[in-house]
Amino acid sequence: MKSYQFSEYGGALQPSDHKTPTPQGDEALVRIRACGVCHSDIHMWDGHFDLGNGRELDISRGRSLPFTLGHEIAGEVVAVGPTSEGVSVGAQRVVFPWIGCSDCPVCHAGNEHLCPRPQALGTNVDGGFSDHVMVPHARYLFDHGDVPAELASTYACSGLTAYSALDKVKEQAAGRTLVIIGGGGVGFAALRVAQALFDTQLIVTDIDDTKLQAAKEGGAAYVFNVNDEETPKEIKKLTGGGSGAVIDFVGSEASAKFGLKILGNSGALIVVGLFGGALAVPLPLIVLKHITIRGSFLGSLEQMGELMELVRSGEVPSIPVEPRPLAQAQQALEDLRGGQILGRVVLVP
User: What is the pTM of this model?
Assistant: First the structure.
């Protein structure tokens, strides 16, 4: 079994050979066919989040080094434990990686992705920058139908994160508009999933004209470059005073401020991106405009099931996927950090 691991935060990813494990109990061993590369992998690799004002959130605890990143995993079940039920050897599945302890009130409420004692693949335990991964139970494995593994893998994080955020603005977006801030991997996924969920006007904003052109070709009714000083005015004019829903897939101080600026009365700003920074909001504005500011982190096991049902039905248009050899894992992370990726890079063992 070969993996690409880092032994110190920010250090190089190095190949590592070790014995392929044998599944026990309810476990299932998956031979990985594809693993997406996500911005979250960069944060895990760095070992911290930027909180703004010179502060950082240390996330270096909770995993053992050397560590294998990668949580957008699709592959073939090649072995199962003696008590495993619900999946057979040979099944092609996408893996729900956001696994909790299964024993706390949060997990019992169906929110394993928010568990205070997480066991998430590629985040807390070794993940998919490898040729095999162990999954603790078949309930975390989802049929992806005729969708290629390279595309199916992206639904485990970018697709699920987009779906969960969109699910939070169904009422505000209905009959109004939805603005997507950031046309990168998760933002583009949201654009595509939104077309399957909503009959509403979709607007995408970014600082990169290449991503805006891709969004326009991908179904956005309007696209705007946020570096243009007239963009907020244009969006307010277009939306009759402000958008009903804005989802920020960047998560920087500048992008969140921009989101508030273009948000209409009774609207909702959902912050998804983790770029970092801090946000100061005049409190009377929240009350007088009757707005909601809410975070959205990943998505639940139930939402994964709903999303994959949509995917299998063929209602979700695809996103651009660029397969690369697993050996290029570090270069993929560096290209993603540099903003050089359109859609999703997927590592193939």
Answer: 0.92
Q: How far is CA 149 from CA 10, 72, 222, 246, 347, in A?
A: 29, 10, 31, 31, 11
Instruction: Supply φ then ψ for residue 310, to 5 degrees.
Output: -60, -45
CA distance 328 to 313: 33
Q: Which two tokens stand for residue 59?
A: 């996330």
Structure tokens at 128: 């998919």
Q: Which fold has domain 160-295?
A: Rossmann fold (3.40.50)
Contacts 24+ apart (CB under 8 A), 112-116: 112/300, 112/301, 113/297, 113/298, 113/299, 113/300, 113/301, 114/297, 114/298
- pLDDT for the residue numbered 233: 96
Contact 296, 157 (CB under 8 A): no
- Condensed to tens digits (0 to 9), the pLDDT of residues 241-294 reads 999 999 999 999 999 999 999 999 999 999 999 888 888 899 999 999 999 999
| Tokens found for residue 319 | 């996103």
In this structure, are residues 169 and 270 in contact, taking their beta carbons and an 8 Å threshold? Answer: yes
For the chain, what are the domain ranges? 2-156+299-348, 160-295
Question: What is the assigned CATH class of domain 2-156+299-348?
Answer: alpha beta
Whether residue 78 contacts residue 31, with contact meaning beta carbons closer than 8 Å, is answered with: yes
**Alpha helices (runs of H) in the chain, residue ranges in sequence order:** 39-46, 105-108, 149-152, 158-167, 170-173, 185-197, 209-217, 231-239, 253-261, 283-288, 301-313, 329-337
| 150 residue type, one letter | E
Question: Are the CB atoms for 191 and 215 separated by under 8 Å?
Answer: yes
